[in-house]
């Protein structure tokens, strides 16, 4: 990927946040070789969703190339840890696969000037893949109730009749299932469990939550931990951002009367037709995802990963960098970078424009 070109276009197209100067400031007439140089400078720290990891790497590389005096650090510590860090004032922004809860909002945000509110905008839309590593099995179809039974621990063998019923002609081993879930508070877990609770409540009776709700299965830290455990284990299954599935098998889930594998297009379709979230407002663009769709062009096991920031910062020096970086990330060039690096679904142009207006007001 041409990071320099990508970052320059995205970063320059930010009204009022980046000042440009000529390389030949002391010369009379600029030459054709002169190029605009960003005078933006400073360091900002972010933390949170590990699902954003690949996208953040691409975004940071591009943005720092275009703005050489800027340093951006991002710790993929998990959504819950990222929100906690931001609330406590330990970071300039957070990435989260879960929208802020009202009780978190009520605590206030130490990095923000009191009573100036917060910003929560979508940045990364991606399907969650149910990944597997089962001896002799390349393709696997599962409905929501069966997935729920596997991860709850009520379905324990790969040749269980419930699995066999949706996999005619597949030789399933008579072997124990090792179901791997996140050990940390995770927005990926919250989105995955929200799907199971909405679509298979008769099996998955626990509400959606960042911590995995049951004591069954094997736990692993972060997205990379789950992927490693499934990859290196025997007859394993787990869930992770689809961009991290690699060479592992990916389950086709039942949507309506068809089985559907994760895709950026299917994820985007769900988001486009979902209503606003419970805390949504002028600077909170959270979304309540429609998990119960029966349209097979949709893929309902999807996460919307947010960026959370301040409307007004206690440390005013970080505001221009946060505004510029988040605007790049959520603009057309940043979204294209994420799609290439992580296979995510780009935000719509309408949503990107709405976000840009919110971010331009950061101070």
Structural description of this entry:
- With 363 residues, the chain is α/β, with parallel strands linked by helices.
- The chain has two domains: 191 residues, 3-Layer(aba) Sandwich (D-Maltodextrin-Binding Protein, domain 2), CATH 3.40.190; 142 residues, Periplasmic binding protein-like II (D-Maltodextrin-Binding Protein, domain 2).
- The chain contains twelve helices and 14 strands.
Brief summary:
34% of the residues lie in helices and 20% in strands.
Question: Can you give keywords for this protein?
Answer:
14 strands, 2 domains, disordered N terminus, D-Maltodextrin-Binding Protein, domain 2, nine-stranded mixed sheet, alpha/beta, 363 residues, 34% helix, three-stranded mixed sheet
Strand content: 15-25%
Mean pLDDT across all residues, rounded? 90
Distance between the termini: 32 Å
Number of strands: 14
Number of helices: 12
H-E string: HEEEHEHEHEEHHEHEHEEEEHEHHH
Main sheet, how many strands, which sense, barrel? 9 strands, mixed
Q: Round the Cα radius of gyration to an integer and report it.
A: 22 Å
CATH topology of the largest domain: D-Maltodextrin-Binding Protein, domain 2
CATH class of the largest domain: Alpha Beta
**Would you identify the CATH H-level superfamily of the largest domain?**
Periplasmic binding protein-like II
Query: How many independent structural domains?
Result: 2
At CATH level 2, the architecture of the largest domain is 3-Layer(aba) Sandwich
Task: Briefly note the structural class of the backbone.
Answer: alpha/beta
Q: Which ranges are low-confidence, i.e. pLDDT below 50, for 5 or more consecutive residues?
A: 1-33
User: In which range does the helix fraction lie?
Assistant: 25-40%
Global outline: elongated
């Amino acid at each position: 990927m041409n990071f320099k070109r990508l970052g320059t276009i995205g970063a320059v197209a930010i009204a009022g946040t980046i000042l440009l100067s000529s390389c030949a400031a002391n010369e009379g007439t600029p030459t054709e070789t002169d190029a605009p140089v960003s005078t933006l400078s400073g360091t900002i720290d972010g933390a949170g969703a590990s699902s954003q990891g690949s996208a953040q790497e691409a975004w940071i590389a591009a943005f720092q190339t275009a703005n050489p005096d800027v340093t951006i650090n991002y710790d993929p510590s998990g959504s819950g840890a990222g929100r906690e860090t931001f609330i406590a004032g330990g970071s300039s922004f957070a990435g989260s696969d879960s929208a802020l809860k009202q009780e978190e909002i009520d605590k206030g945000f130490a990095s923000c000037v009191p009573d100036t509110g917060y910003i929560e905008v979508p940045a990364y839309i991606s399907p969650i893949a149910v990944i597997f590593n089962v001896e002799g099995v390349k393709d696997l179809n599962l409905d929501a109730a069966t997935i729920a039974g596997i991860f709850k621990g009520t379905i324990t063998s790969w040749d269980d009749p419930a699995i066999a019923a949706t996999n005619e002609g597949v030789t399933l081993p008579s072997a124990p299932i090792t179901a791997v879930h996140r050990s940390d508070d995770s927005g990926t877990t919250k989105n995955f469990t929200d799907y199971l609770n909405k679509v298979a409540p008769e099996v998955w009776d626990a509400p959606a939550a960042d911590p995995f709700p049951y004591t069954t299965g094997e736990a692993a830290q972060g997205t990379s931990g789950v992927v490693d455990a499934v990859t290196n284990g025997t007859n394993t299954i787990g869930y992770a951002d689809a961009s991290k599935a690699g060479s592992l098998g990916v389950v086709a889930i039942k949507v309506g009367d068809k089985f559907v594998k994760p895709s950026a297009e299917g994820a985007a379709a769900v988001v486009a037709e979902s209503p606003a979230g419970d805390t949504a407002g002028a600077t909170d663009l959270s979304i309540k995802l429609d998990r119960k769709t029966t349209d097979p062009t949709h893929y309902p096991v999807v996460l919307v990963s947010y960026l959370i920031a301040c409307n007004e910062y206690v440390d005013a020096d970080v505001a221009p960098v946060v505004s510029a970086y988040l605007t790049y990330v959520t603009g057309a060039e940043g979204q294209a970078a994420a799609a290439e690096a992580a296979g995510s679904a780009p935000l719509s142009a309408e949503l990107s424009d709405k976000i840009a207006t919110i971010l331009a007001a950061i101070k």
